[in-house]
Amino acid sequence: MNLAKISSNGQITVPAEIRRLLGLKSGDKILFYQKPDGEVVINNASDKAIYKAQKAFEGIAEQMGVYNEDDVQSLVDEVRYGKEK
Description:
Helices cover 40% and strands 12% of the residues. Strands 1-2 form a two-stranded antiparallel sheet. The longest helix is centred in the last third of the chain and has 13 residues. The termini are far apart.
């Protein structure tokens, strides 16, 4: 188990052990999502992870116009807020 403190700016330092487990390095982005049971999960959302997801969906991402992290965020915003960027 690892513990992190939230700063007054809402920032956290990801513990070194967790960074190693997720393969995180400086500049990487992390993805937070909530599972149906309420559990919150974090994952490495680096370009490498996105490209792996695109490959797993065998062209579906491209058909939907999702080519990079900005496209993913726009899709998330569209689903979450009902608007396109």
